[in-house]
Amino acid sequence: MNHGFNILAKPVGPICNLNCKYCFYLEKEKLYPDEHKWRMSDAVLAEYISQYIQAQPGSRVDFAWQGGEPTLLGVDFFRKVVALQKQYAQGKRISNALQTNGVLLNTEWCRFFAEHGFLIGLSLDGPRELHDRYRVDKSGNSSFEDVVRGLELLKREGVEFNTLTVVHRENSQRPLEVYRFLKEIGSKFIQFIPLVERVAPPALKVLGFGLNEPPDPAGNQAPTSQVTSWSVPAEQYGKFLCAIFDEWVRRDIGSVFVQLFDVALQNWMGLGSSLCVFAEKCGGALAVEHNGDLYSCDHYVYPQYRLGNILNRGLMEMVSSAQQHRFGEDKLNTLPDYCQKCEVRFACNGECPKHRFMRTPDGAAGLNYLCPSYKRFFKHVDPHMRAMAELLRNQRAPAELMELLRREDPGALAPKMPGRNDRCPCGSGRKFKQCCGGT
Questions:
Q1: Annotated catalytic residue within 298, 382, 409, 422
Q2: What is the pTM of this model?
């Protein structure tokens, strides 16, 4: 692998000012038991920025910063980031994305983001009751008001932002309430992340791991269906997505962008997925820790998936290593026959390997815990995805589908789109391929 990769940088490691009950990364402190200063040093920062820019083949380089909570480092740390990026840019265009819980955002932060064109991902799980169910501070108190205050500052200063909503057991039961809330607070770009975490067996707890069992993309571990109490139920995530899609496809195409819907359309267009979890193979989305350790993936920050350290081994050497290549290939190579033959395999590709801990109906290991949800969702959206793909192929906007749906029964959940030789539902009297379905 020598191109097409990105890295999620963790400049403050797992350190955070919140104590989200479902966070899988807080326990990573145990990986560095002797660490007392959780801050990426100047030497590591400069080496990372220099190597990452040099390793990217294109004219644009996208940096992503996360934690823990990266704003704990202060604005001056990221001023240094921007200065180093300019120093090593080599004529390339640099962009930055930063994921934050929003609690520490103030006018200084937001003006800095606006000045340097940072894209901010803001973690928000829905209205107050649903957000505060698990996203609380170190004292167990609400974080909702601080997050919303930060959101308003981002909007006031004109900072580009999107929202990231973790779909857990509670908010998955109220999909439209979550979706409408996100629209009301001004989010036009929405990410939904299903929460699926296993309870670690006793042997791993002895080794220092807490809630999250290290997943194995090669499928060598014994499958288990035991998940945490806050994980989204295996079938509920699909119901959640379908309910939101049914509203989005009738009202919000082209005005609200839901990452999963956009990625699905890419697959229906035959373009492949830009999101690693739905790609046929993985290995192109790595993570670098505060001390320069590089790991195969953000969800595989465990000792056995450490590739090395950027201070003593080249970034490209690690990304192109046999170990990382094998990690990426395992996603495809270990996909069960049951999944290989599935009618929605082209859209799902077995999703993320960290969720593949169930057994197929014929007893094979490696079935995704969320399989029932993805089967439900991808089958449900198929007529609409085919229609939007056809519009795009004819250089028409997918938003035109909303008008077609308004002319049909508004209570139909999956209306049948007209065939190319059917009369166009717009009332023109022409065939669909010669009217709204044509050029």
A1: 298
A2: 0.88
